[in-house]
Design brief:
It is a single chain. With 557 residues, this protein is mainly alpha-helical. Among the domains are: 189 residues, no CATH class; 67 residues, no CATH class. Helix content is 57%, strand content 3%. The strands form 3 sheets. The protein has a 3-stranded antiparallel beta sheet with strand order 6-3-7, with no helix packed on it. Strands 1-2 form a two-stranded antiparallel ribbon. The chain has a two-stranded antiparallel ribbon with strand order 4-5. A hairpin with a 2-residue loop joins strand 4 and strand 5. Helix 10 runs antiparallel to helix 11 and helix 14 runs parallel beside helix 21. It is flat and about 85 Å long. It starts with 15 loop residues before the first strand and ends with a helix.
Length: 557
């Protein structure tokens, strides 16, 4: 456990802001989800969960956003009431009076307040309200501290001091310690110098199975450039998160009775719209902690690899030039040995980062869209059915037989969803029997054998803009605010492990393909900043486009 540190005095004329405003990737989490009414946001989360795959937004993150908004809104209400010192009934009466018949008297300053006497809160009541608000904020930060930080910044300023009031009375409250860690005011851009680890150490010692606190301590270590300690905390957090997830699944992975499954399937077919809007119980909602830990551990490994790059290259050119003229001295041999060791460390850490980024990407899905041959055959069939009286019988039978009798391959396997019908113009459930598109984990695009049904990228030049627009509209990927940064970081890892240029060019094209269709609106705004993307563009420029991309990166994405 780290030793206690005496807080430093902030420099004069320094901007003092809350610690959580320093958190990385905050800009990626901005969006309309911060302003949408909580009821609408929750309804959208359920619709997103039941939507056809790939889900428009990562369901784990979406449900966490709903819980964070609810917790922050409720905490704001409690903190404002505790600060004002009025009961909810008094506040309600004031609002009604201001909007009703008594509004004129209030505006004239007559000071009318309905609700009778005893409208002031007692000191104990204020404390209990602040304590409850602190617990709700702690829950929000435990779910996702980046998203919670954004939500708190958009809320009332009274939240910044609510945990401090609780600590004045109960200094050992772990929830208050955790919230105050984020809300404590420190000099701007001096996170490492003014952030001791003691509060987080105490919380983790009291709650050793708290993976979220380990995540927070790991991110704090990243600011302090303690990457080894960050990796250790994130690894421990991953073990806890996976164990808790496994325990949650106990009893839920049992075989479902055939009658129950049949009833659910019939309900979906009978009322597909109502079924999609059915809420998911909170205990059954997915959790995003594992993906957070994977992403941050991958970033820590990549930072470790970056630390050793300069030592791996320092003096290399001079050593090679001198070795051609004369034998190197013992000191030069020792320096060269150190360079080789650092090169091994660069590759080792880059491979570990690559492993974690691939694991992170495996949680999201991508579809190339419907196979063009299947789509064309479907359109021909729809045209013939719509103009059945004018269609030639041999042509209709031929196309129908092609669609119903031929083996259509999807994802390398025969697809048999199109089966012969007894009646030509009748479709079950009022829908056309169009086979669903192939769904792939995003990580599959970066395997040694990528899916065979990927459309070519960059797309071939076409004089028909409608065809190009149709091809792009077919592709879709599950959105996550950190997806773009993870994709470009993956390319940096491949560059460090010296992946062959041909293979790296294929990976780069797939990253550009995904980045182009990555869109989180209307829940998120487009991410305007990506550190990994800027680094990748800089590497391409400095290395002279060694992978021979046909276009600039700005044109590809």
């Amino acid at each position: 456990m780290a030793k206690s540190q005496t807080p430093k005095q902030p420099p004069k004329q320094a901007l003092i802001i809350c610690r959580h405003k320093h958190w990385r990737y905050i800009s990626a989490f901005h969006g309309p989800w911060l302003q949408l009414p909580p009821e609408i946001l929750e309804s959208l989360a359920h619709s997103n969960f039941h939507a056809p795959r790939p889900h428009p937004v990562d369901p784990c993150l979406f449900y966490d956003l709903v819980k964070i908004r609810r917790a922050v809104d409720e905490a704001t209400n409690l903190a404002v009431r505790a600060t004002s010192g009025l009961t909810s009934a008094a506040l309600s009466c004031q609002a009604n009076a201001a909007n009703g018949i008594l509004g004129s008297a209030a505006h004239l300053g007559l000071g009318y307040v309905a609700g009778g006497q005893n409208t002031k809160l007692s000191r104990e009541r204020k404390y209990r309200m602040r304590e409850l608000a602190t617990q709700k904020l702690s829950h929000a930060y435990h779910l996702d501290e980046i998203a919670a930080s954004v939500a708190v910044m958009q809320s009332a300023s009274t939240l910044e001091d609510v945990a401090q009031f609780v600590l004045q009375r109960c200094a050992a409250d772990p929830d208050a310690k955790y919230v105050h860690f984020f809300h404590e005011k420190i000099p701007s851009r001096m996170m490492a110098e003014y952030t001791p680890l003691d509060p987080l150490d105490h919380i983790i010692s009291e709650r050793p199975n708290d993976g979220s606190a380990l995540r927070t301590r790991a991110l704090t270590r990243l600011f302090k450039e303690d990457y080894v300690g960050a990796v250790r905390d994130l690894t421990d957090g991953l073990s806890i998160a996976r164990y808790m997830q496994q325990q949650h699944r106990v009893g839920k992975d049992q075989l479902v009775l055939a009658s129950t499954a049949r009833e659910e399937a019939e309900a979906r077919r009978a009322n597909p719209r109502e079924w999609r809007d059915q809420p998911v119980k909170e205990e059954d909602q997915p959790n995003s902690l594992e993906t957070q830990l994977l992403f941050h551990r991958a970033g820590a490994y990549l930072s470790l690899a970056h630390q050793h790059i300069s030592d791996a290259l320092d003096g290399l050119k001079d050593f090679e030039a001198q070795r051609e003229q004369s034998s190197p001295s013992p000191e030069e041999k020792e320096a060269h040995h150190n360079r080789l060791e650092n090169r091994k460390l660069v590759k080792t850490y880059a491979k570990r980062a690559l492993r974690d980024y691939v694991a992170f990407l495996s949680h999201f899905e991508y579809t190339p869209g419907i196979n063009p041959a299947v789509a064309e055959g479907f359109l021909h069939k729809a045209h013939d059915v719509a103009h059945g009286a004018n269609s030639s019988e041999p042509s209709y039978r031929k196309r129908t037989q092609e669609l119903t009798d031929s083996d259509i391959e999807v994802n390398g396997q025969a697809y048999t969803a199109l089966v012969p019908r007894q009646r030509e113009f009748e479709c079950r459930d009022g829908t056309w029997p169009l086979p669903p598109p192939a769904i792939h984990p995003v990580s599959a695009l970066f395997s040694s054998t990528p899916p065979p049904d990927l459309p070519p990228y960059p797309p071939p030049l076409s004089h028909n803009p409608a065809i190009t627009a149709l091809a792009e509209s077919q592709e879709a990927v599950t959105y996550h605010p950190l997806l773009t940064d993870a994709l470009h970081s993956l390319l940096l890892c491949h560059a460090l492990v010296q992946t062959p240029p041909t293979e790296l060019r294929r990976h780069a094209h797939n990253v550009a393909r995904l980045a182009r269709v990555c869109d989180g609106y209307p829940i998120f705004l487009a991410a305007t900043r990506s550190p990994a993307r800027a680094d990748w563009i800089d590497v391409l420029r400095r290395a002279g486009n060694w992978i021979e991309l046909g276009r600039s990166w700005e044109q590809l994405v």
